[in-house]
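User: Reviewer 2 asked us to show a designed sequence for the structure in our supplementary figure. I'm pasting the structure tokens here. Could you produce the per-position amino acids so we can include them in the response letter?
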């Protein structure tokens, strides 16, 4: 019972989608969308050399001028350029074409490494989720078989509280997540992921009209470690002048908590310097040891308290759908945004995310992002809580007061369970991503 899963962690683990094959060309300072992969020949600008692909083999060749009639289809947007005519001393003419600068934006949601290339995304983020709640009722079981208690094994049946009791739960998490990808081909990549996180859970800020309340001081506990490992594949199966689409599948293991399968599909439409896209995600988690998850607090004394989100839930599903856009502002900066609506096993949520970034060269980009919930159906839901209490504070004479002694005040170990009602629920997250491509 003491094991648990923080659902905001588990369901928030979405794979980083390495930018994949979406490029921009700068012709006289104007950025336009181009097609990346053609049937016969594709040229990508890279540090003064063109990496030419012929029949899936790579050849590094010096940059050469090409006549309009011999250009790859990739450059057809520029076939109508007017030639620049320059007079030579010999009175002959020479035809030249304006230079074309190609740039990949590493933060693009469809970017992934080319064959034999590596990508790295280091994600540093801080998130918080929390809610206010009311305790509705309680039932108590005497577990003290060690002292022993004279009422060991007795059960005080679940009863409404004779006084009001409200509180707050807050979960903060600082995490570092690393995703490394390798291009198996120009359209298929392998991704490995690992995550270190430090999570603090605070359950407290109680308010009550009980004239003789128990110790209701604030309680905060922190746990940290390298808790998540994963492996997956990404396939960009469509990429032409107008459309782009990608499918991903991942397996993730969360230490002592769950094994998870994640599937993601998205498709986009290219409009000049902007890609608009839709997406859908499906997640399935199998809880490893227990069938309950929620906000969990414990301490060195052995006490623990769980505000569960769901119980008797060995299998957990979630599904998301939404829309997003990625837009290039100039040669170095970009913007992105997503609006996502999801069903997360026990509640539904509408979430918005915004990104702004800077890419000074072809191999490095830095993105800042923030997300927040706009709506959550958790409000007014009634869930179960469980408390394991060592050396409990029981009123003299035992429970119930003024009646037969069911739980003795001599008991040193009791288990309490009942219902709590969520009064409000919110989530937000801020983060920084450093992206490398080599």
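Assistant: Here is a per-position design you can include in the supplement:
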């Amino acid at each position: 019972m003491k094991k648990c899963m923080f659902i905001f962690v588990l369901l928030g683990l979405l794979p980083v989608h390495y930018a994949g094959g979406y490029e921009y060309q700068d012709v006289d300072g104007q950025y336009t969308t181009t097609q990346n992969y053609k049937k016969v020949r594709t040229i990508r600008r890279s540090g003064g050399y063109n990496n030419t692909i012929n029949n899936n083999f790579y050849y590094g060749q010096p940059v050469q001028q090409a006549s309009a009639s011999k250009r790859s289809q990739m450059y057809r947007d520029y076939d109508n350029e007017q030639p620049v005519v320059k007079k030579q001393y010999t009175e002959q003419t020479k035809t030249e074409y304006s230079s074309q600068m190609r740039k990949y934006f590493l933060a693009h949601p469809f970017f992934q490494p080319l064959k034999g290339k590596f990508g790295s995304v280091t994600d540093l983020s801080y998130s918080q989720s929390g809610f206010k709640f009311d305790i509705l009722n309680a039932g108590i079981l005497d577990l003290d078989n060690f002292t022993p208690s004279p009422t060991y094994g007795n059960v005080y049946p679940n009863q409404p509280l004779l006084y009001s009791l409200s509180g707050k739960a807050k979960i903060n998490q600082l995490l570092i997540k690393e995703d490394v990808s390798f291009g198996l081909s120009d359209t298929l990549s392998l991704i490995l992921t690992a995550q270190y996180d430090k999570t603090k859970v605070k359950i407290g800020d109680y308010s009550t009209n009980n004239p003789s309340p128990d110790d209701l001081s604030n309680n905060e506990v922190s746990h940290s470690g390298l808790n998540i490992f994963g492996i997956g594949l990404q396939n960009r199966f469509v990429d032409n002048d107008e459309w782009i689409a990608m499918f991903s599948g991942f397996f993730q293991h969360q230490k002592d908590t769950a094994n998870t399968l994640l599937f993601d599909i998205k498709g986009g439409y290219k409009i000049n310097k902007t890609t608009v896209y839709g997406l859908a995600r499906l997640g399935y988690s199998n809880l490893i040891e227990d069938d309950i998850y929620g906000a969990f607090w414990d301490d060195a004394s052995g006490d623990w308290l769980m505000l569960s989100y769901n119980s008797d839930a060995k299998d957990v599903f979630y599904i998301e759908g939404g829309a997003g856009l990625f837009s290039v502002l100039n040669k170095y900066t970009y913007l992105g945004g997503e609006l996502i609506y999801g069903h997360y096993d026990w509640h539904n949520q509408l979430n918005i995310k915004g990104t702004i970034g800077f890419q000074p060269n072809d191999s490095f980009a830095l993105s800042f992002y923030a997300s927040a919930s706009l709506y959550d159906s958790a409000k007014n839901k009634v869930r179960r809580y469980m408390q394991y209490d060592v050396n409990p504070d029981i009123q003299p004479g035992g429970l119930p007061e003024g009646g037969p002694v069911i739980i003795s005040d001599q008991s040193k170990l009791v288990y309490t369970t009942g219902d709590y009602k969520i009064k409000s629920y919110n989530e937000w997250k801020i983060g920084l991503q450093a992206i490398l491509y080599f």
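For the response letter, you might also mention the following. The two ends are 46 Å apart (CA to CA). The helical segments are 7-10.
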